[in-house]
Structures are given as C-alpha cells and as structure tokens.
Write a structure and sequence with these properties.
four-stranded antiparallel sheet; 2 domains; Jelly Rolls; 9 helices; Arc Repressor Mutant, subunit A; alpha+beta; 239 residues; 44% helix; 22% strand; single chain
Length: 239
Amino acid sequence: MTAIIDGATTMAHNLHMNTVDAASLLAQTKPFGEAAPAHLRRLAGTLTQRRYRPGESVAMYETWQQSVWFASQGVLRTVNYPTSGGQATVSVAGPRALLGCLDASCQRRHWLECFAVTEATVAFLSRPAFQSAVRGDHGLCLGLLRLAVERLWEERELRTTCSLPSRPRTVAMLLYLYRRLGHRIPLTRRALADACALTRETTIRVLSPLEKQGAIRSERGALEIVKPDALEALLRERN
C-alpha cells in the first residue's frame, strides 16, 4: 500500500508557496538549516503544503515512506508499529519537527499512521528529492545523522516510558510532551491515554491528583503543564 496523502478520506488541499518562503521555512527546520543555500533553494522548489483539520489522516504507510514531512503550523500525532511486534509508540510533533526522515534515509519498513491533532499546515518533500539533497550536501548529511541519533534515543525513551506503571508512565509522557510542545499540550485526556497505552479511566485517576497539586491544569481539548519541576520531582521519587 502506498502513502495515503490527500486521498479520498481527507479534505486536505495543496497550498501555494513561493520558493523564497519555502526556503525560509526549510532553513528553520532541522536538519535543513545546515544545507548550502543553493541546495536549500533547489529543495524548496519541490516542497508542497497541505492543510488538515483535527483528526484528519496526514499519512498512513505499511511500506517504505514516500515522503518526509513536518507541520509548519499545528501539531501532529504519529503512531509507529514495529514490524517485529511489541508495543506501538505514539509521538507528538509540533511545528518544524521533521517526520519520516529515518525511514527515507535508512529505508526502514514498518507501519505508521500520522494524524493532525489541531488545525495543521503540513509541508511535504518527496523521498527522492530528500535523498538526492542529502547525498549532495555534506552539511545536510551530517545534520540528518545528528537528527537520526536524537530520534532513535527518543524512540528508546518512549518504549521505556510505556513499560512503566501507570502513574510514572503518565508523568513521564507529560514531561516528554512538555519538552516537545511547551506548557500547553493540545491533547484530550483520551488522546493522552492512547499515547500512554492506558485506558481513559486510568489516565483520569492519575491526572486528578496532579491537578489538585497544581502541577497541571485541564481545559477543553488541552492540558497545561503548570509546574514541570513538580512532575520531575515525582519521577525522581520513583527512582
């Protein structure tokens, strides 16, 4: 099955973007800021953007990725299913966090689903254009290697988090989301429960005392991290 992008199940449509604006956007996104200006402009000429509503499918693959992508605005949620079986991992990406880069560069084969959490504008680069740019630009290649190391450590962190008991698992996930998105996390309790591989009821039981302690605050469709230091302290207590 090929990538389901801008297919029948989504209302997404292409947005016009000139090459200068596309190059500026890429320059603010790891690892493209390390590319030579001429290579960056060439790559920017292949960039397309689409707008998605909350809950819409951005990408769904069961084979090698066809694209790399990132949100220029909004938040995306990605579910990775390892081919070897085991626990799927859920990650959340804010603006300018490149997705699909490990698969496009390493040709990993696995299941993946990506959805818009909020209203999102998503930029896409085809895999051939991305691979050609990496091969032709030393700075971009080194930047990609550094980003790959970060992502592999992140995958390891998420798998470790999902093996914890429910309370430290939820606290660790809140801190992970805080580091990625800042104080306001645009996830419902149901979405947070899915990210933690817990039931909604269990997640609510964990969150309620955190709210009473003033560490977090709930609002419609989002959570706010009020006291990240208090969450860090809770994790240290466990250790």
